[in-house]
Specification:
mainly alpha, 273 residues, 77% helix, globular
Length: 273
């Protein structure tokens, strides 16, 4: 067993758990971290970046089990609230499933690189600043209040997250603000929306590489997923407390600064991304 590889997997899991639900792009940070750590082979590294998200999503299921189970039971019993939340999640998941299955391999082949991440981080940062400087008219204060139209539009906006560096949570949360959804409801819906999308993507990537994975590889994945679960659980609780009192401006400045740093180190040759 390669202990150094397991240690690197733990670091990658920590990066995933911390960044998955913040609007700063977990995939972008995993791509950069993987290159800096010289983690695994390129093919397995890209698969790991998707599969490790299962740990972060498991943290959402654990934290919101009561609400999610209530929505499922409510939908089965025909209750309005449970049925609406369940249908909204299904509706919002459809666009990225279709586009991801169609163009996912192309995106990995051409856009999984540091320069794409840097540009997306910077552009996304300015969009967050623009969104936060607009006057917010809240029409949906709770996640159960979202309409089918809002869910559809959020699902379409989420497709931009296929570009590494964009951030799935960032695109869905900021898109929700434009649609009149409160920060708390936007964050929670983004959490829930990740369950079918990221869980499905992670399992699909592992299935595609099933013939190339060995028992030692499964141990590496397990370490990353467990660390991602623990760190994501902490971040989820912290983020909900944070958005109740603050906006996302700080994350915008972080994105812009980090994106400029990546481009500067690439341009000067300090780091060979």
């Amino acid at each position: 067993m390669d202990l150094l590889l397991l240690f690197k997997a733990a670091i990658m899991g920590l990066v995933e758990g911390i960044t998955e639900f913040l609007p700063i792009s977990s995939t972008g940070h995993l791509i950069l971290s993987g290159q800096l750590l010289d983690f695994w082979t390129v093919e397995k590294r890209d698969m790991f970046a998707v599969a490790v998200q299962i740990g972060a999503i498991a943290a959402v299921i654990y934290e919101y089990w009561g609400k999610l189970w209530g929505a499922l039971i409510g939908a089965m019993k025909g209750q309005e609230q449970g049925r609406r939340l369940s249908l909204n999640l299904i509706i919002a998941s459809i666009p990225i499933v279709i586009i991801g299955l169609t163009f996912g391999d192309v995106v990995k082949a051409y856009l999984f690189n540091a320069i794409t991440v840097a540009i997306a981080l910077i552009v996304g940062g300015f969009i967050i600043l623009w969104a936060e400087r607009r006057q917010h008219l809240v029409v949906s204060s709770e996640v159960d209040d979202l309409t089918f139209k809002q869910a559809t539009l959020i699902g379409l906006i989420q497709c931009f997250a296929l570009i590494p560096g964009t951030s799935r949570s960032g695109s869905t949360i900021i898109g929700s603000l434009f649609l009149g959804i409160s920060r708390k409801a936007a964050a929670e819906f983004s959490f829930f929306l990740g369950i079918p999308v990221l869980m499905g993507a992670g399992l699909l990537d592992m299935y595609k590489m099933r013939n190339d994975l060995h028992s030692n590889d499964l141990a590496v994945l397990a370490v990353g997923i467990v660390v991602a679960f623990i760190s994501a659980l902490i971040v989820i609780r912290a983020l909900i407390r944070y958005v109740s009192k603050h906006d996302f401006t700080a994350f915008a400045y972080y994105r812009i600064g980090f994106g400029v740093f990546i481009l500067a180190t690439w341009w000067t040759g300090w780091v060979h991304w």
